[in-house]
Amino acid sequence: MSMSQTQSRSGTEIPNGAGAAAILSAGIGCGVLGILAFAGDASDAIGKALNFYNPTGTLSGVTDFAILAWLGSWFVLNRLWRGRTLSMVRINLASFALLILAFLITFPPIADFLQGK
Fold it and tell me: Which end of the chain has the smaller Cβ count within 10 Å, N or C?
């Protein structure tokens, strides 16, 4: 790879938009998974709506929607950010915050507390 292929027009920055899109979309997918898992557990109506396959139960819809959110956000963000240089600190913090949110609201003691069980 030549020097011109790895550097932007300014000569010092390498575009990271595609990588940033991948990282943030992974966080979005995790966040959607956690929120839907919590909602499906907390509400019988939501749980039944997310039950696409009886042997798996609510988890079948939760994972389907999380994958769609991940792929959809990756597609859109990649189109918007491709070729740009972004602040990875903000992207990483947002993605990590979504991952922590998903972990916390699916952790049984915390989920049970939030649901009043």
Answer: N
